Amino acid sequence: MGFGKVGSEVARRAKGLGMHVIAHDRYALADRACAIGVELVTFKEELLTADFISMHKPLTPATPKMFNDDAFSRMKTGPRIANVARGGVIDEEALLRALDSGIVAQAALDVFTEEPPPKESKLVQHENVTVTPHIGATTTEAQEGVALEIAEAVVGALKGELAATAVTAPMVPVQVPSQIVQSELAPSVALTEKLGRLAVQLVVGGRGVKFVKVTYASARGPENLDTRLLRATLTKGLIEPISSVFVNLLNADFSAKKGGLNLREERIVLDGSPENPLEFIQVQIANVESKFASAISDSGEITVEGRVKDGKPHLTKIGSFGVDVSLEGSPILCRQIDQPGMIGRVGSIKGEENVNVNFMSVGRIAPRKQAVMTIGVDEDPSVEALKKIGEIPAIEEFAFLML
């Protein structure tokens, strides 16, 4: 009962034990349940079929005593119930009657309507009831964990990073727990910011950026993919490299509006599994001049495209050239005539400076024709090294971009 963060984790573990898992939660995403292998059912269906019921429902105006005499009468005989959510979700007197009559075989209770429960409580003393104190958050380990989480959140906020426990971020949909949205989209969040930083650095002078289009390709429908979080981090990536403005998740839309940035979002709906939230993300900047001409696509905009691979952001397209380079370091872009020895010559220049190359990819029109070589480096190359790369006869243009 309840398929939020805790409920879905319990479901994963139950699946690992070989159980057939069903869940009732009117706010649960069908594709998320499908990805875990969980069947979403109605409340009545759950009562009729469940052998073990694990409670993870909050106490809201809609949930007080949802497990009452009527609910227990609809159950199959002999289920086990564990309530680690809120005591008021179960009518305790009705549960006691269900235990006495044998409708419920056993109950494990971590929460009660009155806490602590009175010593004379018949429910606490019942031979088929196991009780534990609801003090998990007050253990030494939990308190240390909370202290570390707070410290990490403060440091992350000062750096402008994704706040995993933010409660005021306007881009998190209210119908889905923010932790689920943010943890699932975290790799794509990193990708959107890096694509924004790449795209804006390709603009001559880095100024005059007014019209940006971002395209999300996904097998999910709009109702199951809220992109406001991604828009905020893309805005951060577009603005911070060219201004002194510090952009965070809360002021992103305001910062874009103040800077005259018109950010338009589009979606491409794909066939396939909705388990992954996004297949790829494309960022285009219109009506600007590029310092790397090959970044201009056939439609006339600076175009960069990427996707998440193995949990890491990758650049997969620049202009009309397909590439495949990890965005963990900083990239060097080279347009060249495709010919043998180019990778070695550029790599040798990096090696002479002890600059580590972490990734290299070449996208070309055809053999021996124009190509774009993308090189990821862990350290910033010197001006002299970049000059040597530019002096290689076959290289027509190059750009070093900092992430």
- Average pLDDT level: 85
Rounded to the nearest angstrom, the radius of gyration is: 28 Å
Low-confidence stretches: 170-181
Count of discrete alpha- or pi-helical segments spanning 4 or more residues = 12
- Identify the CATH architecture of the largest domain: 2-Layer Sandwich
**Quick one: CATH superfamily of the largest domain?**
D-3-phosphoglycerate dehydrogenase, domain 3
Estimate nothing, just give the exact number of structural domains. Answer: 3
Instruction: Bin the helical content.
Output: 25-40%
Order of helices and strands: HEHEHEHEHEHEHHEHHEEEEEEHEEHE
Which fold does the CATH topology of the largest domain refer to? 60s Ribosomal Protein L30, Chain: A
Give me the oligomer status.
single chain
Biggest sheet character: 6 strands, mixed
Structural class: alpha/beta
For the termini, the CA-CA separation is: 44 Å
